[in-house]
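Q: Two folds, back to back.
A: First:
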Amino acid sequence: MSNQLTRSVRVTLSLEKAFRLFTEKIDLWWPPGHRRFDESEIILEPRVGGRFLEKKRSGEEIMHGEVIHCTPPSRITYTWYPGALTKPTEVDVRFSDMGDHTLVEICHSEGESQMGEVWNERAQKFERAWGEVLSAFVAQAEQF
């Protein structure tokens, strides 16, 4: 089994709203410090083959990943190029209805990247990044 890290958060949104906020409304909450460009737009297309990209005002786009699995409103899986060596890592996001809240679980794994020993070093960076990204998601969920 490949190396992986997991994080989870709870939001007081319905399953459908949590999924929509994470995917279709990602630009509302994706932290500025986790963007390649100032004043860019983050887009995550919630469908198999959909793109996870960042778009500059000039129209230039940078591909961060591609959706490889999508079953709204419970799961989206995409490849992730930032921080990878040659092939992308993989991010699996699952949404579970817990009654009064939705549990959002992230599993970030080596995927096709085959980082081997480098994974542990990169995973520490991914872990810190997910802490910041998920905090921004939770903060936006409180206003959504």
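A: Second:
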Amino acid sequence: MINNDVMRRLRYIFDYDDNAMIELFALADLQVTREQVCNWLKQEDDDGFEFCDDVTMATFLNGLIVAMRGRKEGVQSVPEQVLNNNMVFMKLKIALNLQSDDVLTLLESTGFRLSKHELTAFFRKSTHKHYRECKDQILRNFLKGLQLQYRGDVTEKTAFIWK
């Protein structure tokens, strides 16, 4: 998935305003401006749209982890240079302190069924023989499940988010 889409969806799910978004970046030791955040949140065809690179998105997710779980002792996590759906999925699972059964329940709430073995394959090292790449559809359904849990039903008004 495009980093900007994930960021837009998380902003909506948790009802973050611009100041909250800026604070999440600050929690991961990155100072951003309101203009930068607004440009990342714009649609691709809007004037001023700015692509959110992997390092920026990893920093945002690290800030989300700190906001929801607290700052860990010692050296803080360094944002990844390259980010994929598996890493985004893992960081969200960590931030929300979800167990595998919780993730499966969220996915089932969207009508998407996955076995526990299939799920754990997403969280393995990429060199592991049972590693599986997380496709956009799975991450999209996970985010939709989060929306159902935190915001209620997906309505006509919010259907545009899932296109």
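Q: And?
A: The chain has a mean pLDDT of 92.
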